[in-house]
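[Meeting: bench + compute handoff]

Bench side (C.D.) handed over the final construct sequence. Compute side (W.E.) agreed to return the predicted structure before the next meeting so the bench team could plan truncations. Sequence as handed over:
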Amino acid sequence: MSFDGPATTRPPVALGCLLAAAVAVAIAGIFAFVAVFLDSGANNGRLTLEPAEAYDVGYVEYLSDDNIFLVRLRNGEFVALSDMDAANRSAQSRRCRVALVAINEAATGIPAETLRSRLSAGAEGTTSVFREACFGAVYDLAGTRLDADGRNLDRHPVGVNSAGRVIVDTSKRECSERTGTVSSVAASCSQ
């Protein structure tokens, strides 16, 4: 039997399969890169830190690249505090960042008993506080104002991811203030 139609050439099946496999690998590589990039915290305001169990109760670490203090309170809760208070953030002249100091009159200018009587529940029993030198404001390790009523240190949300690592969201701020005997009332983060 003869066929007199035009001769057609068909590409080998192996070439088509190889091309499909190469495209699938390239797409998978792009998805893997995007997932790793986003999980790394690059440009998304999220810091991925050590596993939670690496931080003892009472632990305080200054993360200078992000201008925050990571604190693990006595109840096991983590807080991430801004190192600049509201007064310094709005100051037009010299600005001071808070620093960790001993809870004594020599370091703070305020009697230790006065400061201890105003500690928030999360900071009771601590031996250190935060103080800024421009205005003399003093805050406990939970960020609560101790020397007077007014804005507390701003917080950044903290959580623990599925791998058990501490995550800080530096793209968001949570603001509060001390008023009378109430150590924390929600406040606007307008500054």
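W.E. noted at the follow-up: The domain at 46-186 is CATH 2.102.10.10 (Rieske Iron-sulfur Protein). C.D. will use this when planning the next construct.
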